[in-house]
Amino acid sequence: MPLYITDELVPINKPSPYTGRIFSRDAVEAIIEKFENTDGQILGELDAPIRSTVELDRVSHAVDRLFIKDGHLCATIKVLDTPLGKIAKQLHEASVKVHLGLRGQGKVDEISKEVQDFNFCTVDITAAQDTRGDNLIDLVDFDDIMNSLEEDGFL
Q1: Cα separation, 144 vs 155, whole angstroms
Q2: Beta strands 99-108 and 72-79, pairing class
Q3: What is the pLDDT of residue 19?
Q4: What is the per-residue pLDDT for 149?
Q5: Are strands 133-138 and 99-108 parallel, antiparallel or unpaired?
Q6: Looking at the 3D structure of the chain, how many domains does it have?
Q7: Which of 31, 37, 49, 92 is the most exposed place for a label (fewest CB within 10 A)?
Q8: What sign has the CA pseudo-torsion 127, 48, 137, 119?
């Protein structure tokens, strides 16, 4: 019998209790739309890496559903029979509480803390409660990185 896990990812139009970041309803709807346009073919990883790609040798689950419930973006994942999926199942069987985290790239307005230009990548399984939900957003602007590298003489 397949194992499904459902969890809240981020509140809508309210600061995340973990990071203070705010996802607008428009941003959340864009995430759901992008997921729906993939025909449900988004895979995720165990332990939420900080990169925008999913490594096939690290896949633990498939994202089954993204939806809005009680003012939150929520996800349901289907744990797969992969090496890391088996670890996720073992954690579940041992009653270890895992969380789901949203992974993608975007910017955060310094004043309002609203997430902007978010590019959804996947949903990952994580054990970290303090960063649950929006823990993997790459918030650094690419142009800022390039300018910094140039200023430091690396380019």
Answers
A1: 13
A2: unpaired
A3: 83
A4: 58
A5: parallel
A6: 1
A7: 37
A8: negative
* C-alpha–C-alpha distance, residues 101 and 136, integer Å: 7
Mean pLDDT by 10 residues, the chain (155 residues): 90 89 94 88 87 90 95 95 94 88 88 90 79 43 53 60
pLDDT of residue 139: 42
User: What residues make up the domain containing 44?
Assistant: 3-151
Cα–Cα–Cα angle for 59, 36, 83, rounded to 5 degrees: 10
User: Which of 29, 33, 61 has its CA nearest to residue 125?
Assistant: 61
pTM over 0.85: no
In angstroms, the CA 74 to CA 60 distance is 18
Q: In angstroms, what CA-CA distances link 151 with 7, 138, 143?
A: 43, 21, 12
Neighbours of 6 (CB within 10 A): 13
In angstroms, the Cα distances linking 129 to 16, 49, 150, 153 are 12, 15, 37, 39
